[in-house]
Amino acid sequence: MRQPSLDTEITRLSDARTLAPLSAATAIAQDLLIALRQAKHVVVFTGAGVSAESGIPTFRDALTGLWERFDAEDLATPNAFRKDKDLVWGWYEWRRMKVLMAQPNPAHLAIAALARHVAKLTVITQNVDDLHERAGSTDVLHLHGSLHQPRCASCGQAHHLPAAIPEEPEGGRRLSPPVCDHCGGPVRPGVVWFGEDLPARQLHLAQQQAQACDLFFTIGTSGLVYPAAHIPVLAKQAGAQVVQINPSKTPLDDVCTWSLQGAAGTVLPRLMESAGFDHSA
Ligand SMILES: [Zn+2]
């Protein structure tokens, strides 16, 4: 009796909607490939895992050096900034440097390439870096703000930072924030801090897109940070099919039609290839 071939094995695996950890032979379900080829409006929702694959320290990993003894409440709240502006601004400039030194990874590039194969693609990200934009994505909603769009803490006017990569010491340092050109107030990072609302317009657009799409990808996110974590649920409730790509299980597993376990930078290019899409930049 012949042994089942690898193809048979993959076909059989594909029948089980939720695939086991994806190794060298990432098995992509046939019905997912059909859904992807037929999709008219795709939403890609990304979280910290996608940035981490570019070597960007996650929020927790960024608490090193000068900030080792601090926690989020000491650095990422409006009160923290009022209390010690130099400590907070120094941390964010160090993080902005790390982002500008990093490059988009194959997941960012595949997402940008996917936009060429579907009628409409919207990226909704919880990440505060600009890697989706640098990979070539144009329609990006930043739910948690951006490290690259600071604004005045007093009057709200946007502040433009020099284009050059900041040169911050590896261990970090305290750094005075710039002052607002308009009112002389202190400039603050353009990110959403704990205790702050998500930017209303971006959140509204994200909800709208999630409810209008037919295929929704949730990638590299734990599905734990609300209200952002509700976006995939909205998509599902409105009738979209939901695909999850994450190295481990998340609370979103139950919402997903397909759950692909693995690194986004590995799984996404393979998914594109399997669908017959060119994913080169
Ligand atoms: Zn101002």
- Tally of helical segments: 11
Compounds present? zinc ion
Instruction: Write the CATH architecture name of the largest domain.
Output: 3-Layer(aba) Sandwich
Helices and strands, in order, run as HHEHHHHHEHEEEHEHEEH
> What is the count of structural domains?
2
The CATH C-level class name of the largest domain: Alpha Beta
Fraction of helical residues:
25-40%
Q: State the fourth-level CATH superfamily of the largest domain.
A: TPP-binding domain
Radius of gyration: 20 Å
Main traits of this protein?
elongated; single chain; 281 residues; SIR2/SIRT2 'Small Domain'; two-stranded antiparallel ribbon; binds zinc ion; 2 domains; disordered N terminus; alpha/beta; 8 strands; Rossmann fold
Secondary-structure map:
Blueprint: H1 6-15, H2 30-38, E1 41-46, H3 48-52, H4 72-75, H5 78-83, H6 85-101, H7 106-114, E2 120-125, H8 131-135, E3 140-142, E4 145-152, E5 187-191, H9 200-212, E6 215-219, H10 231-237, E7 241-246, E8 258-261, H11 264-274
Parallel strand pairs: 1-2, 1-6, 2-3, 6-7, 7-8
Antiparallel strand pairs: 4-5
Helix pairs in contact: 7-11, 9-10
The site of zinc ion has 8 residues, from loops.
Written description of the protein model:
With 281 residues, this protein is α/β, with parallel strands linked by helices. The chain folds into two domains: 28-55 and 104-144 and 198-281, TPP-binding domain (Rossmann fold, 3-Layer(aba) Sandwich); 57-101 and 150-191, SIR2/SIRT2 'Small Domain' (2-Layer Sandwich). The protein is 34% helix and 15% strand. It is built from eleven helices and eight strands. The protein has helices spanning 6-15, 30-38, 48-52, 72-75, 78-83, 85-101, 106-114, 131-135, 200-212, 231-237, 264-274; strands at 41-46, 120-125, 140-142, 145-152, 187-191, 215-219, 241-246, 258-261. The strands form two sheets. A six-stranded parallel sheet has the order 3-2-1-6-7-8, with helices on both faces. A two-stranded antiparallel ribbon has the order 4-5. α8 links the parallel β2 (120-125) and β3. α7 runs parallel beside α11. The chain is elongated, with a radius of gyration of 20 Å. The protein binds zinc ion.
